[in-house]
Amino acid sequence: MSRPRIEFWYEFASSYSYLSVMRIEGLAERAGVEVDWRPFLLGPVFLAMGWNDSPFNIYPPKGRYMWRDLARLAAKYELPFQVPSRFPRNGMLAARVALLGAKEDWVAPFSRAVMRANFAEDRDIGEAEVVGGILSELNLPAKRLLDEAVTDDNKLALRRQTERASELGLFGAPSFRVGEELFWGNDRLEDALEWAHRKG
């Protein structure tokens, strides 16, 4: 009998996605739930809502709260954390590469390494050198994958995945879908997994 599944929609530039990317694999394994990794881009989603930047930048008090909240939660989960010197960073290349990894078995470790680079090591994940270095550290063929990531077919795949996020009514990241049920935010990860386990 197949295990229940959860769709995990995340953005590499998203602060709260960092927490979920680092936690979901272990929690899902314990819950007996399979994870379908769905990297996408929040920029087009925000533009559709009339925002040309992260709401954490548009509303400074909200941004100040978010960074303090993130620091508290990272400490709670025993995750490394430092405020990036630039926010949000461009996660497009990383998302394109992650789409390739989602077809194979390395999307989870790659995603964790990219998030760690952005939110714990303050490295620019928009640079091909950084993303390529992460691939090499994972013993993956960096040059081939970087070349494949920027093919027209793969660019279109990410665009379609981002459009699909909007079609599904997603408005932020991380988001989790179990069937037609939507859960939004890192603090709903456990609820989403429990729902999947119960309904599966």
Describe this structure in words.
This protein has helices at 15-31, 42-48, 55-58, 60-77, 92-102, 107-119, 128-137, 142-149, 152-167, 189-199, and strands at 5-10, 34-39, 175-178, 181-184. It is 57% helix and 10% strand. The mean pLDDT is 94. By secondary structure, it is α+β, with helices and mostly antiparallel strands. Helix 5 (92-102) packs antiparallel against helix 6, helix 5 crosses helix 8 and helix 6 packs across helix 7 (128-137). The protein is globular. A four-stranded mixed sheet has the order 2-1-3-4, with helices on both faces.
Task: Write a concise synopsis of the structure shown.
It is built from 10 helices and 4 strands.
